[in-house]
Request: fold
Amino acid sequence: MEHSLKTSEERNFSEDVSYDNMESIASEKSHKRQVQTERHIQKDSIEKSIQDILDVLEPEAQRLQKTPHRVAQSYEEFFKGYTQSPEQIVGSALYDSPTEEMVLLCDIPFTSHCEHHMIPIIGFIHIGYIPDGKIIGASKLARFVDCFAYRLQLQERLTVEIATVLEQILVPKGVATYAIAEHFCISRRGVKKAGTKLITRHFSGMFRTDSSLRAEFLDSIPR
Ligand SMILES: [Zn+2]
Reply:
């Protein structure tokens, strides 16, 4: 079965692999990622590292004395996703579904940081699923977005991770995710193409096999 729970779990905690090969990920790797998702962010270490950078840029500048602490506090917020797990977020917010129709949460804003440059990614994501007996509290969908966005990310992976966690938890008939975002490492540095947006999508289950359903999702989301 292509979208089994086991497959989804392996996908969710995978790293350093192409999405096409996620089914073959070893369980040790899954465990490694799971441990990483529950770790505490060590602000002391971040402060020390920021101080090292400041020592290069402006050695002994008194006015920057509190900057390492402020940056560390900001990082704690930007990367709070590492301290969260989807299982904690779900809690008891699963309910019997009164519908077999698509459930869609649109225009969920997100802020993330690209893992190549540690520069902001700012955008929106739309999440749709076809229930198979269960629905989840809509706010939980937005919390899943934050859980994965507030980490070092690739937008391509963010789109898959959010869909995969829904597959795991709800075991729905299908999941669709669509993200559109500005990457500051493209718009503000390097090629400096302001206004450029990256679009990533992921479809599973019925969304993958039924093109009319996929079209219905794409027609329903604001673009
Ligand atoms: Zn980047």
Remarks:
- The chain has two domains: 43-78, 91-220.
